[in-house]
Each structure stands twice: as C-alpha cells, then as structure tokens.
Automatic annotation (TrEMBL), chain A:
SUPFAM superfamilies: Nickel-containing superoxide dismutase, NiSOD. GO terms for molecular function: nickel cation binding; superoxide dismutase activity. It comes from the Bacteria. This is Nickel superoxide dismutase. It comes from Pseudoalteromonas denitrificans DSM 6059. Pfam families: Sod_Ni.
UniProtKB/TrEMBL annotation, chain B:
It comes from Pseudoalteromonas denitrificans DSM 6059. It comes from the Bacteria. Residues 5-90 form the Peptidase S24/S26A/S26B/S26C domain. It holds the Pfam family Peptidase_S24. Keywords: Hydrolase, Protease. SUPFAM superfamilies: LexA/Signal peptidase. This is Nickel-type superoxide dismutase maturation protease. GO terms for molecular function: peptidase activity. GO terms for biological process: proteolysis.
C-alpha cells in the first residue's frame, strides 16, 4: 500500500533515480526473440510440408529441403537459448514466488523444442509456441505490464503474446 | 529536511532492494556516520548515482562498497570511495513485494 502511494507520488513528482549497477548489460531481456524463433520453426515446417507433397523432388527441391531443415534446427536451439537466458539471468526468487510454474514451464519448453526439432510436425511446433507465449505472458507480468494476443501480420500468421507498452 | 525518496533501477542489490523499488534516504551523515552493512547512495565518477552496501572503511579512510547480487559490478571495479561521494544513507526500502 505504501509502495503504491510512493509510486503514485513518483509519477507526479518524478523522483531522482539511482542505479543498482550490474557488471553486465543486464535488463535487456525480451521473450520476443524466442517467440520469433518459434514462428520461424512453424514457417519452416509449412515449407517443408509443401516440398513433401511433391511426387518428384528435383536437386533444387532437395537442396531447399535441407536448407529449411537446418533453419528449423537452428531456430529450435535459439528458442532454448533465449528462454534459458531469461530463466537463468532474469528470473529470481521474487518472480518464482509469484509464478511457481516457471521452472516446470522452462523445462517443458526445452523438451517441446527438442520434440519440434526431431520431427516435421506442425502440432509439435504449435505446442512449443503455446508454451513460449505463456512464458512471455509471465515475463511481462513480472515487469508489471499487461499483455494482449494478436496474430502476427506475416507467415505463419500465428497468435503471439505482446506487451501493452502504452 | 534531509530526507528524500529515490527510485532504484537495476538488479545488483537483489533480493533486498529489487529493481524499481523505492528507498528513503537521509543525508545526516555527520550524525549517523556510515558503518559496514549500511546501504549508501553514492555519486560515482563512472557509474553516476549508484546504491551499494558499505563493505568496509580501509586504513586510509576510503570507503569500499559492493552490490548484494552475483550480477553486481565488483568492489574493485567500483574502486575506493571518498566521504564526499557519499550522498545519503538508506533508512527504508519499499518494493512491490513488501
């Protein structure tokens, strides 16, 4: 209650600030990188399935297939890395107390990302997106920001969680 | 009055002083001299206004301060602090969790 009162006073009076300075460029955390990496995986699966529907594959089709597969693999690793960094560097006891599901959710993202890498399976990538979106929702809640969902305006036109920044 | 509220940004004083919390500081440093364990507002030549915990005062009278989390910039990087750089002492911390 007192915090809220001081917070309101701060908005009116603009208190000066002091930094609890860190040695690394901390505080630059954003789950959007992980979300975009999952979208890339979904897009790769769509394009891989397009090639898969062809009866005869040319050398170019085969080269494209490998290229798409590599990108899916790479972005699966990126999802893991981005989520691990937020989990390992940003998430601490206060966030864990508010959101006790964070450890289990992070672990489930690691597993879901592996599954999405192992197969050309759209359901697996969509399941991964759901989990990463939930992670994003929690992340922004820890920042005191509300979120909304919207369909990204580019392929694979899936729903993402975005922060309300206004 | 010698009191003022300051908003804290950064994670180096976690978990005691989380990011975006407020501290009430007083500037009566001649009466209440800084002691090890006190949290101080410091004007640093490189980092600007920072908040750190006083570790010790050496024989030359320099103040050595540190953060409370693993992420904090190290005591040696902050370097020795002279008395004139100490602007205030934290007496109350208010965070969203309290």
């Amino acid at each position: 209650m007192l915090f809220n009162l001081i917070s309101k006073l701060d908005k009116k009076l603009k208190f000066s600030t002091a930094s609890a300075h860190c040695d690394i460029p901390c505080k630059i955390y954003d789950p959007i990188s992980a979300q975009i990496a999952v979208l890339t995986m979904i897009r790769m699966v769509d394009l891989l399935n397009d090639i898969n529907e062809k009866s005869n594959l040319t050398a170019n089709d085969q080269a494209q297939f490998h290229r798409l597969l590599n990108q899916k693999e790479e972005h699966g690793n990126k999802v893991k890395e981005e989520i691990r960094i937020i989990w390992g560097d940003y998430i601490k006891q206060p966030q864990l107390e508010k959101f006790p599901e964070l450890h289990a959710l992070t672990h489930s993202i690691m597993l879901a990302s592996s599954k999405a890498k192992q197969h050309i399976d759209k359901d697996a990538t969509l399941d991964l997106l759901n989990k990463v979106n939930r992670f994003a929702e929690i992340f922004w809640a820890t920042k005191g920001l509300e979120t909304y969902t919207a369909v990204c305006p580019y392929p694979p036109t899936q729903t993402l969680v975005y922060p309300k920044l206004n | 009055m010698g009191f003022k509220f300051i908003r804290i940004t950064g994670h180096s004083m976690m978990p005691r002083i989380p990011d975006n919390s407020y501290v009430l500081i007083h500037t009566w440093l001649k009466i209440f001299k800084p002691k090890p364990g006190n949290t101080l507002l410091i004007k640093h030549h490189k980092y600007g206004h920072i908040i750190k915990t006083l570790s010790h005062i050496d024989k030359q009278g320099f103040y050595w301060v540190k953060g409370e989390s693993m992420q904090s910039v190290s005591m040696s990087n902050i370097g020795p602090i002279i008395k004139e750089q100490i602007l205030g002492k934290v007496c109350i911390t208010l965070s969203a969790n309290h």
